[in-house]
UniProtKB/TrEMBL annotation:
Originating species: Streptomyces flaveus
GO biological process: polyamine catabolic process
MF terms in GO: gamma-glutamyl-gamma-aminobutyrate hydrolase activity
Presence of the UniProt keyword Hydrolase in the record: yes
Pfam family, one: Peptidase_C26
Entry-linked InterPro entries: Class_I_gatase-like, Peptidase_C26, PuuD-like
Name this polypeptide is given: Gamma-glutamyl-gamma-aminobutyrate hydrolase
GO cellular component annotations of the record: cytosol
Top-level taxonomic group: Bacteria
Keyword terms of this UniProt record: Hydrolase
Length: 240
């Protein structure tokens, strides 16, 4: 059976939610804008359950998909990158979410599956490759929450190819940022204050780019942001 004319399957690890308005119990969710952006780009978004990798082989689960999107979410536990203490602002830490997302990052890169990592997703990839995070950027005058600001994009990168721009308006919601950069990763974008806003891994067998912002927020009106989802879906299609 050929899959040439079907939408590429894009796996999106679900996020645990304590409550949702439409359901009576705790839920596993993905942001509607994120799912719609993948669909708009021509992909078939599929939420996958964050099961313990010790009991469910992540590489085997991912093998049926054409691409992966690591979405935003709460903070990684600081011990994941070697910190011995935790800042008071660290929030929504979930050990199962952490271990699953980190394994997804490693296995996706090893399998050569196309990967787009967003916000927490960028931080997950950085930590998975031995990097660390600044636990809190410091107060409302420094954090990048509920703001749209310009980011400078490095020329010749997959990020530039996807967005078609050397500068983009980034919709941000994060209070943490990359500190030590993971092994092999290259910075592809920065904010005016020096915050790392993009990462790539030259030499990886599959298409991969990561952004610290949320392109899904404005993908319905900003061609550069939709371009990230277009590039992911196109890479997934080409891999077939």
């Amino acid at each position: 059976m050929t899959r040439t004319h079907t939408r590429p399957l894009i796996a999106i690890p679900a996020r645990f939610a304590a409550t949702t308005s439409a359901l009576r119990y705790a839920a596993e969710v993905n942001a509607r804008a994120l799912v719609e952006a993948v669909w708009r780009a021509g992909g078939e978004p599929v939420s996958i359950h964050p099961a313990d990798p010790a009991g469910a082989d992540v590489a085997e689960r991912l093998a049926r998909f054409d691409g992966v999107l690591l979405p935003g979410g709460g903070d990684l536990a600081p011990h994941r990158y070697g910190a011995t203490d935790s800042h008071d602002s660290v929030y929504d830490v979930d050990d199962l979410q952490d271990v699953f997302d980190l394994e997804v990052a490693c296995q996706t890169l090893d399998l050569g599956l196309p990967l787009l990592a967003i916000c927490r997703g960028l931080q997950v990839v950085n930590v998975a490759l031995g990097g660390s995070l600044e636990q809190d950027m410091g107060g409302v005058d420094r954090e990048h929450r509920h703001i749209v600001h310009p980011v400078a994009i490095q020329r010749g990168t997959l990020l530039e190819q996807a967005t078609g721009a050397e500068k983009a308006e980034a919709s941000c919601y994060h209070h943490q940022r990359v500190d030590r950069i993971g092994v092999g990763l290259k910075v592809t974008a920065r904010a005016a204050d020096g915050t790392v806003e993009g990462l790539e891994l030259p030499g990886t067998p599959g298409w991969f780019t990561a952004v610290q912002w949320h392109p899904e927020d404005t993908a319905d009106q900003d061609r550069a942001q939709l371009g990230l989802f277009d590039a992911l879906v196109q890479a997934a299609h080409n891999r077939r």
